[in-house]
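Regression report. Comparing outputs from two consecutive submissions.

Submission 1:
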Amino acid sequence: MTRLAPLAALLALGACATAEKTSFNSDIPGVAAQEASFFSGTIRNVYRGDNDIIFVRAAGRWYRTALNEGCLDSIVATNPTFIFDSQGTSKVDRFTRVHVVDGGGMPLQCQVRSIRQSLAPQMVDASSIVPRG
């Protein structure tokens, strides 16, 4: 039995590693079907996509983040500042508010509708299959 213990441990580790892999089979190419979250302290880049979509690089992964409809319509800056307000926690999820600062104006408040892990967006990888919007 003691000889099988290391094998059982390896099989258990393999099962955990497999469970952590993200499947990018969804209605949007290169985007996971299930909702995700990340911690605000791990955010490295934020890129604006089309419509109300932003792409966030956090903890070495990309996340396609949909904000409430029409939220970014009045934003004219190409690189606005995004401030993630997770209301006392550091977890960014569907309950997070995003304050968008467009130049010197007042911040606009948006609500996160969806966060899904994705491949790198086209703004970073020209050959990406992930749509901008």
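Submission 2:
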Amino acid sequence: MDMNKIGDLANQHSDKVNSAVDGAQEQHADKLGEHAGLVNKGVDGAQEKFLNDSEEQSGGTPA
């Protein structure tokens, strides 16, 4: 499987991945103690960079 296909699959399912990651952040934030904010900020940045929703990529308005 080439990297373009992997990227396409990630983008097709980005809403599900984002939802699962957001749930994990909420569930485990207390375990990160004083670093929770910094870790969550990094995770949110990675979600924005790597998991674009399909509307954003097609020029539409994200939901």
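Expected: both submissions complete independently.
Actual: both completed, but the second showed a warning that disappeared on reload.
Relevant detail on submission 2: The CA atoms of residues 9 and 31 lie 31 Å apart.
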